[in-house]
Amino acid sequence: DFLFFWGAVFLITTTLVALLKKENKELTPTKEETKGITDTYRLLFSIIKMPAVLTFCLLILTAKVGFSAADAVTGLKLVEEGVPKEHLALLAVPMVPLQIILPLIISKYTAGPQPLNTFYKAMPFRLLLGLEFAFLVWWTPKVKHEGGFPVYYYAVVLLSYALHQITLYSMYVAIMAFNAKVSDPLIGGTYMTLLNTVSNLGGNWPSTVALWLVDPLTVKECAGAQEHTCGTTHAAEV
């Protein structure tokens, strides 16, 4: 019902904008090097072929491999270990003010001539938090009792998530600031969108691979059926 309501609101408002909003033809458009889709893609390929851009794209495509598993799998493993989904969802609520405030604070440090310094400094802490998340998953079944989980467990999870958000936003805001800084103002939209797309891809493909590798890399033991192995999904179901 929630999604249906806001989907309807979205459709109505965008339709009204399309019907009622008129372009101001009196304003002279800013000079652009591109005039159409073909020119835009030709320009994108010329940008990608630049040695500095190629090196940067290679870096941001691989920079997030180290913490992809922790980011993608931790929540699923906590649910698998018995943490209720609704409790994890509630823990996301205190994160909202933090997510609003963090970019404002971090932007002060990324406004200088070297915004990527914040990115570099946050990376080792985010890698360490990946180890902390692994410990959290290992610790979860040990603190579980018949009534669920103690309050201090949720406090640790909340603190872990808060620290993770700080490192995540430090890297995110820093890379966005750098992309904005190096993009040519004449073709800023095209240039910056390309870099941001590569940056987003650099976060998505490692998470996809991490999720795909969960089953092959998970060791399963069959309790009460020693002659069977649980190496495959089918064998585990049997």
From TrEMBL:
Record field: transmembrane: 6-22, 43-67, 87-106, 118-139, 151-175
A Pfam family annotated for this UniProt entry: Acatn
GO molecular function: acetyl-CoA transmembrane transporter activity
Gene3D superfamilies on file: MFS general substrate transporter like domains
Keyword field: Membrane, Transmembrane, Transmembrane helix
Gene name per UniProt: Slc33a1
Keyword hit for Transmembrane helix: yes
Membrane topology of the entry: Multi-pass membrane protein
Protein's recorded name: ACATN protein
GO terms for cellular component: membrane
InterPro entries per UniProt: AcetylCoA_trans_1-like, AmpG_permease/AT-1, MFS_trans_sf
Keyword hit for NADP: no
Protein location: Membrane
Domain of life: Eukaryota
